[in-house]
């Protein structure tokens, strides 16, 4: 267990402070940069910062869940989801830099909270652990759909990234369902939505 904790601590430091890398090509690698007005660039930057913060939270959440998962299949599913979230980190991080910004200052705070939630979800049992994964991905997918409608129409680079992220998240939700995810109670879903809203508001500008 000590080795696991040290490994997770190291992974957390790398998530927060080291550049992420992607095994797959960035979704926007063959998309030309568009001319954006100052306001459109500011808005696209805010949305991509929110998405990056969400991926930081997802990385912490799945690490915490994998740490306490009992079933090897559930643990592997969580680690696979976490691996793709690292790629999402790389994609959104680079896009933030291209738009002239930086990641959210609140990332360490949200990472810590999400890790604690993930550990707690895992301790409740694998079916609830997977249920938390499934509901998280459904909410993230809806969130990314809203960003696709909000992004500046000509910002095809950001749109390509968000579209691929959404597709990946929905695959994670399907995977959790196939592994026996339990349906979370409505109050829990509501609390998850509230937490996501607070993260969105705090990270859009800062």
From TrEMBL:
<dbReference type="InterPro" id="IPR012347">
    <property type="entry name" value="Ferritin-like"/>
</dbReference>
<comment type="pathway">
    <text>Cofactor biosynthesis; ubiquinone biosynthesis.</text>
</comment>
<dbReference type="InterPro" id="IPR009078">
    <property type="entry name" value="Ferritin-like_SF"/>
</dbReference>
<feature type="binding site">
    <location>
        <position position="169"/>
    </location>
    <ligand>
        <name>Fe cation 2</name>
    </ligand>
</feature>
<keyword id="KW-1003">Cell membrane</keyword>
<dbReference type="GO" id="GO:0004497">
    <property type="term" value="F:monooxygenase activity"/>
</dbReference>
<keyword id="KW-0479">Metal-binding</keyword>
<keyword id="KW-0472">Membrane</keyword>
<feature type="binding site">
    <location>
        <position position="169"/>
    </location>
    <ligand>
        <name>Fe cation 1</name>
    </ligand>
</feature>
<comment type="similarity">
    <text>Belongs to the COQ7 family.</text>
</comment>
<feature type="binding site">
    <location>
        <position position="88"/>
    </location>
    <ligand>
        <name>Fe cation 1</name>
    </ligand>
</feature>
<feature type="binding site">
    <location>
        <position position="85"/>
    </location>
    <ligand>
        <name>Fe cation 2</name>
    </ligand>
</feature>
<feature type="binding site">
    <location>
        <position position="137"/>
    </location>
    <ligand>
        <name>Fe cation 2</name>
    </ligand>
</feature>
<dbReference type="InterPro" id="IPR011566">
    <property type="entry name" value="Ubq_synth_Coq7"/>
</dbReference>
<keyword id="KW-0560">Oxidoreductase</keyword>
<dbReference type="Pfam" id="PF03232">
    <property type="entry name" value="COQ7"/>
</dbReference>
<dbReference type="InterPro" id="IPR047809">
    <property type="entry name" value="COQ7_proteobact"/>
</dbReference>
<feature type="binding site">
    <location>
        <position position="172"/>
    </location>
    <ligand>
        <name>Fe cation 2</name>
    </ligand>
</feature>
<keyword id="KW-0408">Iron</keyword>
<feature type="binding site">
    <location>
        <position position="85"/>
    </location>
    <ligand>
        <name>Fe cation 1</name>
    </ligand>
</feature>
<keyword id="KW-0503">Monooxygenase</keyword>
<feature type="binding site">
    <location>
        <position position="55"/>
    </location>
    <ligand>
        <name>Fe cation 1</name>
    </ligand>
</feature>
<keyword id="KW-0831">Ubiquinone biosynthesis</keyword>
<comment type="function">
    <text>Catalyzes the hydroxylation of 2-nonaprenyl-3-methyl-6-methoxy-1,4-benzoquinol during ubiquinone biosynthesis.</text>
</comment>
<protein>
    <recommendedName>
        <fullName>3-demethoxyubiquinol 3-hydroxylase</fullName>
        <ecNumber>1.14.99.60</ecNumber>
    </recommendedName>
</protein>
């Amino acid at each position: 267990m000590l080795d696991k904790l040290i490994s997770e601590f190291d992974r957390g430091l790398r998530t927060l402070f080291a550049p992420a890398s992607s095994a797959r090509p960035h979704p926007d690698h063959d998309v030309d940069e568009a001319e954006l007005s100052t306001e459109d660039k500011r808005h696209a930057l805010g949305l991509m910062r929110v998405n990056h913060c969400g991926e930081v939270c997802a990385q912490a959440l799945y690490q915490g869940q994998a740490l306490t998962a009992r079933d090897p299949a559930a643990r592997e599913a969580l680690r696979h989801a976490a691996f793709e979230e690292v790629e999402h980190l790389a994609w959104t991080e680079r896009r933030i830099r291209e738009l002239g910004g930086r990641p959210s200052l609140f990332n360490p705070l949200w990472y810590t909270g999400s890790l604690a939630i993930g550990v707690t979800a895992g301790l409740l049992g694998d079916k609830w652990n997977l249920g938390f994964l499934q509901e998280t991905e459904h909410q993230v997918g809806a969130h990314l759909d809203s960003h696709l409608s909000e992004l500046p129409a000509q910002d095809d680079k950001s749109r390509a990234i968000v579209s691929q992220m959404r597709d990946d998240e929905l695959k994670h939700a399907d995977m959790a369902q196939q592994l026996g995810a339990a349906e979370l109670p409505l109050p829990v879903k509501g609390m998850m939505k509230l937490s996501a809203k607070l993260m969105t508001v705090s990270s859009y500008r800062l």
